[in-house]
Amino acid sequence: MVDLRDSQGRRWQISIGSEHAICDEQEIVNSHTFEIDARPNRLWIDNRLAHVIKVGDDWWVHLDGAIHVLSIDEHGAGGGGEADGMVAPMPGKVLEILCQVGDTVEEGQTLIVMEAMKMEHRIAATESGTIATIHHSVGEQVDAGATLIDIEPPESVE
Amino acid sequence: MLEPDWMVNAPRPITKILVANRGEIACRIFRSCAELGIGSVAIYSESDRGSLHQQTADESVYLPGDTLAETYLNIEAILSAARETGADAIHPGYGFLSERSSFANAVKAADLVWIGPSAHAIDEMGDKISARRAMVEAGVPVIPGEELPLDEPDDMVDELVRAATRVGYPLLLKASAGGGGKGMRVVREPRNLQREYAAASREAATSFGDGTVYVERLLEKSRHVEVQVLCDSHGNAVHLFERECSIQRRHQKVVEEAPSPVLDEITRTRMGEAAVNAARAVDYEGAGTVEFLLAEDGDFHFLEMNTRLQVEHPITECISGTDLVVEQIRIAAGLPLPFNQKDLSIRGHAIEVRIYAEDPSNGFLPAIGPLALFRPPSGPGIRLDTGVREGDEARIDFDPMLAKLIVHAPDRDAAIRRMKRACEDFVLLGVTTNLGFLCDIMGHPAYHAGETTTDFIEVNWPEGWDTEISDVTPFVAAAAEQFGLSRKATVVESSGGRGSPYNPFQTLRRSFP
After folding, report:
1. Which of A39, A62, B54, B387 is the Cys-Cys partner for B23 at CB 3.0 to 4.6 Å?
2. Residue B503 pLDDT exceeds 90
3. More confident call, B503 vs B235
4. Do A7 and B469 lie within an 8 Å CB cutoff?
5. In the predicted model, is pLDDT for residue A93 greater than 50?
6. Which of B81, B119, B69 is nearest to B99 (CA)?
7. Last residue of a domain, one of A20, A39, A72
């Protein structure tokens, strides 16, 4: 059994050799025919040639002129992730921080200005709420995926 | 290979060229050097050790240091690399020092041949204000706009607001010294003016060391059309027709084509003549590009002149049957142009796409990663100008452009079909690229209809772009995982016998090289 996540966040459970697979708890018939040949990075599915390569936990697939990335999910690891963290979309340097801890911010509001590849990028709030933590300061170098800011969702007011 | 006779007998013969650049453009120039029997020298920084450009040149010189200022922008080190290797000419490529007049002067002062225009032409055209003035004098039409003085920062806000009001919204804030989309900001409403000004002037200061900003009316629904010119040192000047570079994101070009799908013969001739006049106005020498904004009604305005070889020069080479790098070298060697305007004509249609390591489904943010699989398309009329190959890495330290894919076909429709097929055939895995997005542009009815205005991407993908999801590829990935295709070589022993954990439908294909 292989557990995968596609670029849309759908989770797949597929067993090659079994006639059905599961995508987000929906059953899908696995009627595909696979062939492999002696050359690496090639796989035939239903007589169509796919190029594949694994980088880290991701399978990169080129099929029918399109490229897809499928991530291997560790068994049992739930989706979710840090629901209320804002992460750096790319490695770069923090240029400006436009909020303070305790500020109330609205979804879409620019909170951080980053610089990467000599361009400025504005990082906007992913949701409305209160700034709980700011993890980096101006001038700091951050990696892709680094959590920048935690936002606490607003408490519901009766 | 021996040098051609024309080089041996040239007024300033060139025997070895140092390219003060990296990546695909360095590789491109080295190829022409090889064909001319001219020696080639690469410079490289630590992170380019073992890169394609270092290995393509005949010789290479390592420039120590972690910053651009210590390496690709280090005039002293570059000149001493030329001395050390006996190079007698320097080609700057594009970007880096290509439009620094101080570099042009330093090269000449070191008694080397500078493959580019004079320092005077670079300065005149490099400063948007003096370029405007020169164009107005030469009778070339310009866009309404004003420069902002920076000497009195306190009065600046009022100045800015006044200038913006005179120019009118929507407007564009541009770094005076800028280019390539850096330091450029669109302001649609007065309330965003100050914020965008701060960002533009900061980007301008970091990228160009000069925070002066220029306010210009944003002409929407316009097209970016540029004309290639070549001028020799004997007073001859020709244009090699236009390129249309309207499809842009973040003010950086993504798709370029030649000729423009909309220009009629009369406008083409007028624009070509305007471009030649623009070049003559600054006594231009070498290859240059005059950019125009073409309005819906057929009016065109001078935008700027790029005093260097352009990224998108290959499409002009395709349709005009020339090698612009060879022409640059000939001109620098003091030779006259081998053709005049009457000898030049447009043959077929060419398209270039820039393959960027970026995520078009996430605001075109730069992406990094290994080029784990890099299998370019091939076939008639397909050219790849690349600075990378399989096994290289897309890194954060340089621009995210990996390669340029160029096609040439008898007509525009055939060229679009060829490009779509070429993009589909390109297997580039390991780092996110814009290839899928480029395929969709090539398949878009608006592109086929030639509706290539500068807001093409915003208009046709207002909600942003996303890949189509596939219900087949998860099975491919699952099968690849199960069959252990991540290993270097896939060795399949027999169809059964291993407890057969495989799909019952599976057959095994054995093939031997």
Report:
1. B387
2. no
3. B235
4. yes
5. yes
6. B119
7. A72
Per-residue confidence (pLDDT) for residue B151, from 0 to 100: 54
Q: What's A139's domain CATH number?
A: 2.40.50.100
Containing domain of residue B29, as a range? 5-115
A121 touches chain B (CB under 8 A): yes
| Residues B150, B233 share a domain | no
One domain, residues A66 and A105: no
B295 assigned to some structural domain: yes
Annotation says B308 is catalytic = yes
State the helix-helix crossing angle for B23-36 and B324-332, rounded to 10 degrees. 70
Residue B155: predicted pLDDT:
64
- A27 CB neighbour count, 10 Å cutoff: 9
- Considering only CB atoms, which chain B residues are within 8 Å of A42? 490
Residue of B207 and A136 predicted with greater confidence: A136
Over residues B33-59, mean pLDDT: 96
- A7 neighbourhood in chain B, CB within 8 Å: 361, 467, 469
Report pLDDT for B493: 37
Instruction: Please check the confidence at residue B145 and state whether its pLDDT lies above 60.
Output: yes
Residue A120 maps to a domain: yes
List, for residues B280-308, the tens digit of each pLDDT value.
999 999 999 999 999 887 889 999 999 99
pLDDT of residue B236: 97
The two three-digit tokens of residue A138, written as one number: 């101006």
Q: Are residues A59 and A22 in the same domain?
A: yes
Q: Same domain, yes or no, for B241 and B207?
A: no
Asked whether the beta carbons of A123 and A139 are under 8 A apart, the reply is no
As a whole number of angstroms, the distance between CA B9 and CA B335 comes to: 9
The one catalytic residue in B308, B354, B383, B418 is: B308
Asked if residue B152 and residue B85 are part of one domain, the reply reads no
Asked if residue B343 and residue B247 are part of one domain, the reply reads yes
